[in-house]
TrEMBL record:
Pfam families documented for this protein: Pirin, Pirin_C_2
Originating species: Streptomyces racemochromogenes
Family membership: Belongs to the pirin family.
Domain Pirin N-terminal residue range list: 18-121
All residue ranges annotated as the Quercetin 2,3-dioxygenase C-terminal cupin domain in the record: 165-217
Name of the protein in question: Pirin family protein
Region (Disordered): 78-109
Length: 219
């Protein structure tokens, strides 16, 4: 089964008056849709746009693996629980495992807009100590494992005409960052996504140079 969700179907969140624009793929915050709570361990896939000088002040998380992919600009992250602070740039993967409880700040301290995609995953087991890491310059096709959630992220950047295989996992969540792509006859553009269940031998074909996040998920 392939369930395509369009960018236009994402619902608006954030606080545009303070420079934060968010587009949610799943129930989040004050918005609740009982038929759109999660897909496997994926609890959220948020597209965030932060104006210069804006951001999320210190706030808590628990029992969630939070993976951030910066599309443009620079994300300043400060984690008051584990003591980490730094800047995350395009091509870097950041993961905060909130464990039994963590607090952090996410801001755009730069002079140009910041755009990132953030995926929240439910862990296989709740609790534990918070963890944090950044992988700099993740190469195309290099798997990034999130063992606590039993998930693997594949970041792919196909050229025009290139074909990208979709993992033969029981569940796959695919999010288009850039480009015009085709999946099993369906045309996909920026912000579109596909929730794939029980499919084998699928490929994504790029009509233009693209970038996509492919989550290989447990059953």
């Amino acid at each position: 089964m392939i369930d395509v969700r369009r960018a236009a179907d994402r619902y608006a969140g954030g606080d545009p008056g303070t420079g934060i624009t968010t587009r949610h793929a799943f129930s989040f915050g004050s918005f609740y849709d009982p038929d759109n709570i999660r897909f496997g361990p994926v609890l959220a896939c948020n597209e965030e746009l932060l104006a210069p000088g804006s951001g999320f002040d210190e706030h808590p998380h628990s029992h969630t693996e939070i993976v951030t992919w910066v599309v443009e600009g620079e994300l300043t992250h400060r984690d008051s629980t584990t003591g980490h602070t730094g800047t995350v740039r395009p091509g870097d993967v950041q993961r905060l495992g909130s464990g039994s409880g963590a607090r952090h700040v996410e801001r755009n301290d730069g002079d140009r807009p910041l755009r990132f995609v953030q995926t929240w995953l439910a862990p296989l087991a709740a609790g534990g100590d918070p963890t944090y890491e950044v992988v700099r310059g993740l190469a195309d096709g290099t798997p990034y494992e999130v063992p606590a959630a039993g998930a693997v992220l594949h970041v792919r950047r196909p050229g025009a005409g290139e074909r990208v295989p979709v993992p033969d996992a029981e569940r796959v969540y695919l999010h288009v960052v850039h480009g015009d792509l085709r999946l099993d006859g369906a045309e996909l553009g920026p912000g579109d996504s596909a929730r794939i269940t029980g499919e084998k031998n699928l490929e994504v074909t790029a009509g233009s140079p693209g970038e996509l996040l492919i989550w290989e998920l447990p059953a």
